[in-house]
Structure formats: structure tokens, C-alpha cells
Amino acid sequence: MDNLGYLFAAYSLIFVLIGLYVLLVGNRQARLEGRLRELESSLRALTQAPSAGGREASR
Amino acid sequence: MKLGMAWSLGLASIASMLAALFMVFVYVPTEAQQGLVQRIFYFHLPCAWVAFLAFGLVAVAAILYLWLGSQIWDDLSYAAAEIGMLFCTLVLITGSIWAKPIWGTWWTWDSRLTTTFILWLLYAGYLLLRAFAGDSPEVARFAAVIGIVGVVDVPVIIVSVRLWRTIHPAVLLTRQGQHGLQDPRMIATLLVALGAFSLLFVWLLWLRLRTLRLGSKIASARRRLALYEMEARV
Q1: Which residues of B sit within 8 Å Cβ distance of A?
Q2: How far, in Å, CA of B113 to CA of B108, rounded?
Q3: What ipTM was reported for this prediction?
Q4: Which pLDDT band, with edges at 50, 70 and 90, does A56 fall under?
Q5: Do B94 and A10 touch (CB under 8 A)?
Q6: Which of B57-61, B79-83, B89-93, B161-165 is least confident?
Q7: Chains A, B: CB contacts under 8 A, how many?
Q8: What predicted TM-score, i.e. pTM, was given to this entire model?
């Protein structure tokens, strides 16, 4: 079993680095989706508020 | 639909990667001269293939961005550069791990190693620019130019083993013009690994591109929100 350690190290590093990258991108995606949902709900709240304010002003 | 595509690509990548691992560790015969450590080659070369493919895509998307000015090409270029960098790093690391028992050193300033390291530095510069210089169209244009210039190094890396004296093995096409993989099982294993890494590249590109598109949507939503808040104040 000559150089088995080198073989193990090379394949482990490949999968560790690719796995870390997938985790990083997955986490970033989940965070951004959450932020987008927050912004969209704020936008919805704002677009409804001026029309209510407008009705108040016209009375 | 998008989630479905990401899942399908992810599952296909994992299945093909498992098939490639089975072939590398069970199916392919051990090379007579180098022994077990030669098996690093079956993932080392696909890593190089994905890095070159990614940097080629960076350049094509950068040209299209400079020409058409559409954000999608800049996002594609950025996503491909990040993935290319990951695989270029893996090429250098796995190459070093193979070199230690075969050459007796982790690193030598051989022409192929040096040109690959230059490629790594060029795209490290590209990613540093994208990370720290802001998100303006000027930065995107500068990055596009680096992306286009950097890819010139790829053909240099490929022909470096023929252009200069080198100790790096020329496996696919030997210096005598023959292919270095004599056993058909070695060729089959390499082809399966190349397919698996190509699928992995498409999957990672899809995921990364999706995060960049989400970032653009957030920026657009922030602008609209700021506009509404200004209108509300007036």
C-alpha cells in the first residue's frame, strides 16, 4: 500500500473543498432569499400605505 | 422549476461522481511505475479541464458583457471565475500531493506548474477586484478585461510541456505523439471522471448564478423601496 496517504489526502481535499463551496453558496442563497422576501413584504406594505394615506388626504 | 433543475443537476453530479470514484478505486488497474498515487491523475486532470472550461466561459461572457452591456453576462462571468478558481486551486493542490512521492518535492518551478500558478494569480486578482472594488459598471468592465486577458494563459499551459523543457508528464498526448494511457480501462475511467466533473461544473455554475441573480433582485427591490420612502416623505 505505497503512498496510500497521499492518495487519501488528494481525494479528501477535493471533496472537502467542493463540499465547503456548495455549503457556502447554499447558505448565501438561503440568506439572500430571506432578505428578498423581507424587502418584498416591506415594498408591499409601502405600496398599500400611500394609497391609504391618499384616501385620508382626499377626505 | 429552478429548484427542480438545481436538484436534478445536483443528483446527476453526485451519481456520476460516485461512478467515477468506483472506477478510480475498484475498476481501473494500478499503474506499474507510479503505483497507487497515479490514481490522483483521474481527478487531477478533470479539475484542470473544469478550470479551463470555466475561465474560457469567463472570457466569452466578458466579451459579451463589454459588447452588449447586459448584466447577465457579467454575472455569468463572475460565477464562472469563482468556480474556475476553486478548480484551479484543486489542480495545484492535487498536483503537489502527487509530486511529493513521485518527484520528491511538493513544488518545482516547472513550466506547466508555473504557468498554472500564473493563471491562478490572474483570476485571484479578478476575484479580489470583484470582492473589494465595489459593484459599479466600471469595476465590471475592468474585471471583464482581466477575464479576457487571463484566458490567454490557458493555451500556454496546454502547450507548455511541448514548448519548454519540463518534468511534468504529458499523459494525453506524449512528446512522441502517442497517447499515454495504454489500458482502455484507464481511458474509460478518465472519460467518466471528465463527464462527472463537467456535470458538477454545470451544477455549481447554476447555483452560483442563482445567488448573483438574487443579489440583483435585492438591489432592484432596495432601489424601489428607497423611491417609495422618498415619495412617502414628499
Answers
A1: 21, 35-37, 39-40, 43-44, 47, 86, 89-90, 93-94, 97-98, 100-101, 200, 204, 207-208, 210-211, 214-215, 217-218, 221-222, 224-225, 228-229, 231-232
A2: 7
A3: 0.88
A4: very low
A5: yes
A6: B161-165
A7: 91
A8: 0.88
